[in-house]
Structure formats: structure tokens, C-alpha cells
Amino acid sequence: MAFMKRRSLLSLTTASAATFALDGAAQASTTSGHRRHGHGARYRKPYVVGHRGASGYRPEHTLEAYRLAARMGADIIEPDLVITKDGVLVVRHEPEISGTTDVAKRPEFASRKTTKSLDGKPVTGWFTEDFTLAELRTLRAVERLPELRQHNTIYDGLWQVPTFEEVLKLRRELERELGRTIGVYPETKHSTYFRAQGKPLEEKLVPLIRTYGLDRPGAPIFIQSFELQNLLDLRTRFKVKAPLVFLTDAKGGPFADPKKRSYAHLTSPAGLREWAHLLDGLGPSVKQVIAWNADNTLGAPTSLVRDAHAVGLQVCPWTVRAENDFLPADLRNGSNPGDFGRVVDYLEKLYATGIDGIFSDMPDFAVLARERYLSRR
Question: E-assigned strands of 305-353?
Fold first, then answer.
């Protein structure tokens, strides 16, 4: 029964994905009727982003997780970008890799364990910038949440850490296989941290997206960051034409922001106007779109989607996961934190706010919820 609960809806979602497509850059059709920002890709439906691939079903940020996400109907796949000692962009959730690879079990790398200050906080472990690509290739990916996703541990040790270029090549392969556009949504992780070490991400990112024909308005790419300044630099200093998205959270603020602004300010109507003219999208946490009550039940939608649309920004919140541990208390099934809750209901409520896309670890559920929501409109 546990296996049946976790089965994907691949047969249902692949068919519905065939009806999804990018609009042409010159077309005016929109998901919610508001004016789109000039650079951003336009979609006929709310788009589904496979968060780190289909990370609810395979270890995150592996080529197999990305393949599965697209085959389940995801419109876009999302790689997080960090960098190696020899300057190659690779795909990991964080520069510290003990939670997503088997590095801690490799005696040959025991001496590489260290403590670093990551965005002002001490972090102990093994860091990608201390490994050459060849060394990193000897490691194997493991499930990051084994206590919740024991089924994913079956795949521990099978796959390597991919490079960003491999993900871009896979995107093309998936388009040919599936006969539809597959977008890519790279996140520059800890930009200031890497630049301070002499290993800036942007100087490697920009040439790659240009090589693969993605640095243009309306391209099937969104470049995202929790740091605002590096996005502004991409637009002004690097002259990037591809769509750019500012990620935010319900607490805190962007690291190394010159004006020390909070995310709360930067997502207020006045704050949005400070940067919306240079960027294309907002990536808030789901709790910024629909607040949670003090008892962790689902509250009421905020005005954020409407406020962002008013200044021409697309809105794609992060991240919906099916396990009870990640759902509002009133949408959980039972008390086991790893069991699946009423995630389709949650997704439909998010779509009803007018969002332009959604991040999900389980893209099959996001596709199913989208079709159920749209069928009622």
C-alpha cells in the first residue's frame, strides 16, 4: 500500500502536457490577463517547474530526476548552480555536499572537511569549490531527505553530479523526445559567497546560455536568485536579455543587499516598484502567496500576486511537496510526516490566486491539479 500511495500519475499527466506550449514572444495571450513584463516568456497555462527535477521520486539534481520531471509533464526543469575548483558550473542544492552525495563516506576526501562562513553563517562539511570536476565525478548522488523519502534511497549511489552544460544538453534531448518545449530555471546559489572566493558564477553562466541560444527575450529560461544585486548586475553589467526572477522568503532579506532591505519591503507595492522595471518575475515562498495561520492551517491569500502583476511581473512560488511534513495542518492525512497529504487540493488553491507557475517536487501532482483547476474555470 505504501508503494501504491507513492505511485506517480505519469500516464495522466503526460497526455495533458501535450496541450501545453509556449506562446510566441509577440503574442499577447496571458495566464491571468495582466500585462506581462517585456522580457519574460509567455505561457498559455500556469507552468509547472520540476523542482530540482522530480525530486520527490529520485535523488534531486540528477539527470534522471530531470528526465522524470519532464516525462511527468513538467514544463520546466530547475537546476541549482554552484562551481568547482576548476571553474565548472555543476548542479547541487548548496555548495556543501555532504547531504546530497556520498562524500562523507569517501576516506580519500576526509581531509577536505572544513568549516566556512556561508552568507554569514558557519557551515561545516565538504564544498564543491574545493573539488575539481574530475574529483567531483567520483562521487555519487544520494537522497537528501531519507527520513521522509526512504523510497528514493533505492537510487543512492547510482548517478553522478551533473554539470550545468549537461542539463542544457538534456533539455534539448527531452524536447526532441517529447515533442514540446522544455524550459530551464537555473538558480545562482550564493553569488556573493562565490565571487568573494574568486569563483564568480555569472561569468560562467552567461557564455553558456548564449552558446545554447537562451539569452534572448522570451526564451524558455528563467534565471533566478535570492540575491537581488546579482540579478540587477546580470541585466545591466552583463547585458543579459533572458528572463530574470527574484526569489524571496517570508522572513529575512537578500544577502549583501547594499540597502539592507528585507524581503517584506521588497515584495510590498512600493518595494516591487524599486526593481520590477529591470526583472521579469517574482519567486516568493508559497506562504507569501497564501499565508499560514498560527496553528499551521491554511489561511487567506495575500495581495502579493495582484501587486506583482500590477507592475508586470510573473509570479512563480516555491515549493509544493506532497508529504504531510510540508503541508498545512488541515491538508495532512494522518500523523506520519512522510505520508502524502491532500497536495492536489493545496495546489488548486494556489492556482486560484492567479499565479503564473509553481515549483513542485512532484510535478505529476502539479500537472493534475492544474488540469482540474482549469477544467472548472
Answer: 314-315
Map residue 71 onto helix, strand or coil: helix
Residue with cell 500590477: 310
Relative to beta strand 290-292, strand 187-188 is: unpaired
d(CA 349, CA 351) in angstroms, rounded, equals: 6
Q: How far apart are CA 247 and CA 252, in angstroms?
A: 12
What are the tens digits of pLDDT across the range 76-122? 999 999 999 999 999 999 999 999 999 999 999 999 999 999 999 99
Q: What is the pTM of this model?
A: 0.91
Indicate the pairing of strand 121-125 with strand 114-118.
antiparallel
The end-to-end CA distance of the chain, in Å, is 34
Helix (H, G, I), strand (E, B) or coil at 13: helix
Q: Cβ contacts of residue 156 below 8 Å, gap of 6+?
A: 59, 102, 140, 141, 142, 143
Helix (H) or strand (E) holding 269, with range, is helix 269-275
Report residue 179 as a C-alpha cell.
Answer: 515533442
Structure confidence at residue 54 as a pLDDT band (50, 70, 90) = very high
7 Cβ contact list (under 8 Å, min separation 6)? none
Cell of 157: 549511489
Q: Cell numbers at residue 221, please?
A: 529560461
Bridge partners, residue 120, by sequence: none
Instruction: Reply yes or no: is the peptide bond before residue 211 cis, omega within 30 of 0.
Output: no
Q: How far apart are CA 265 and CA 262, in angstroms?
A: 5
CA 309 to mean position of chain CA atoms: 20
